[in-house]
Amino acid sequence: MPWKEPGKGDKDPWKSGDQQPPDLDEVFRNVNNRLRSILGGGGGGRGKRSDSSGNSGLFGIVIVALLLWAGFDSVHIVDQAEQGVVLRFGAYNRTLSPGINLTLPRPFETMIPVNISEVRSLEDRGHMLTKDENLVEFNYKVQYRIASAQDFLFRVRDPEITVKQAAESALRESVGNNRLDAILEGTQRETVRIETQRVLQETLDRYVTGIQITEFNLVDVNVPAQVREAYSDVIRAREDRERFIEEARVHANSVVPEARGRAARIIQEAEGYKAATVALADGEAQRFTLLLREYQQAPEITRKRLYLQTMEGVFGRSKKVLLDSDSSGNVLYLPLDGLSGTSGGTAMPPLVTPDVREREGVDSPSPNRSSRREGRQ
Questions:
Q1: How far apart are CA 195 and CA 193, in angstroms?
Q2: What mean pLDDT is predicted for residues 305-312?
Q3: Could you tell me how far CA 344 lies from the centroid of its own chain?
Q4: Cα separation of 140 and 88, whole Å?
Q5: Does residue 4 sit within a domain?
Q6: Which of 205, 223, 241 is the last residue of a domain?
Q7: What is the number of domains present in the chain?
Q8: pLDDT value at position 57?
């Protein structure tokens, strides 16, 4: 065995032999000497040092360690997005700006860094009553940041719970001032959001929380699940009403211009008819004036002429032929087919014999007198 080899001595690992336990004083003395040699406290090897020199070396080590610790714990680097809150013996003392700052070492002063640029958010939901006493369910989200590190740390015990409760209270106040239809249709939803954010910020400022609300959003707004299906039918009916109104508006936009054009055309036709009627009336008035002059000059002749013209106009629209019943036996050839208009044309004017004209007192180019006889077609 190795421990039994010659020249090595009888060293049995299972037996202690003649070995003695180390001297603790000697161990501490050696450690002290090494530390003193490192710190420049003198070299060893000239004999044993006194106890007083050992104690002074240990005290120097403690002093150096305290200085290093104090320097390390007194220098603080505050980031650009942070503020440093300094506590002196546990009480607020001052707020440090971004950069390198010095404080007393602990436990005299303590620096707490607070991020004032980070935007924090929380979500919550709740049931609230509207102005018309209907229940509506809200899902909202609040975003905020720290405006004052001192107030945020020492004025509020639990900032998140405080913001949540204040947001719920502000939302209840805003919802209670609006009707359910206006909130669900979106006409007042933006108003509710803005009003809630304003009331929420005023509440947090009143309690000096050091919190600034950056955004308040209504994620979802709906009626409770128990009445959601029935209210969906109401919403669909309202949407149908809006669709019908829009279709009617489109139809009106297409029909109204057409009706206006037709009305303008009718007005133009009426204006033309008016102009023609006025012109005709003026012509009749002038004709009557001329006729009056002739009548004043020869009343009897003018009267007879008017009578004959009237009879011609009346008989001209008739399908009858007038003959003189006192005819002297003259045979007249009458083209009845042509006179009656059987060929599809208009009726021919009545045939008045010259005898009839002579009997009425009007000159006729024919010397024969005709008899008047009524015949049918």
A1: 6
A2: 88
A3: 74
A4: 40
A5: no
A6: 223
A7: 4
A8: 63
Render the burial of 55-78: b for 16+ CB within 10 Å, e for the rest.
eebeeeeeeeeeeeeeeebbebeb
Same domain, yes or no: 58 and 144: no
Domain of 82, in residue numbers? 75-115
Same domain membership, residue 154 and residue 204: yes
- Whether 63 and 81 map to the same domain: the answer is no
Give the pairing type, strands 99-102 and 120-129: unpaired
At residue 166, the pLDDT reads 94
Q: Does pTM top 0.85 for this prediction? A: no
| Highest-pLDDT range among 10-24, 273-287, 316-330, 359-373 | 273-287
Same domain, yes or no, for 54 and 87?
A: no
Q: Does residue 12 contact residue 38 with C-beta atoms inside 8 Å? A: no
CB-hemisphere CA count at 13 Å for 295?
11
Q: How far is CA 38 from the centre of its chain?
A: 78
Q: Are residues 149 and 97 in the same domain?
A: no
Task: State the Cα–Cα distance between residues 303 and 307, nearest whole angstrom.
Answer: 6
